[in-house]
Amino acid sequence: MSNSNYIIELCQTLQQQGKQPSVALIKAISQKTLPLPDILSVLQKWKQTGGKLTASKQPSQTTKARLSQEERIQALEERVARLEALIEAKADD
Predict the structure, then answer these.
(1) Which residues are within 8 A (CB) of 29 and not within 5 positions of it... i.e. 6 or more apart?
(2) pLDDT at position 35
(3) What b-and-e string marks burial along 15-33, b requiring 16 or more CB atoms within 10 Å of the CB?
(4) Is the pTM of this model over 0.85?
(5) What is the largest CA-CA distance in the chain?
(6) What is the DSSP letter of 17?
């Protein structure tokens, strides 16, 4: 997800909570470090559209990479579970 889409989602979250999105609030709830110029740019557009700005629905390269990472994590978790089961079975023998 691009920084812009992420910031828009943060603005939407704040608005749903009844708060006016601001640089300070966006930085406070963000789960990642965001460049100040990105925040200012999106926040300006957000205010110009009266809070009607929406995030792009097209998946970015980062999103595609994240999906494959999530799939890899899933496979590793399954592998660890199988290995733990084998270790327990050996310990019971």
Answers:
(1) 10, 13, 14
(2) 92
(3) eeeeeebeeebbeeeeeee
(4) no
(5) 70
(6) T
For the chain, which ranges sit under pLDDT 70?
1, 56-67
**SS3 per residue for 39-60:** HHHHHHHHHHCCCCCCCCCCCC
Q: Over the range 74-85, which residues count as b (16 or more CB within 10 Å of their CB) and which as e?
A: eeeeeeeeeeee
44 φ, ψ (degrees, to nearest 5): -65, -45
Torsion sign over Cα 71, 76, 79, 81:
negative
Its sign, for the CA torsion 21, 39, 68, 57, is positive
User: If we measure between CA atoms, which residue out of 5, 51, 7 comes closest to residue 29?
Assistant: 7
Give the separation between CA 69 and CA 66, rounded to whole angstroms. Answer: 5
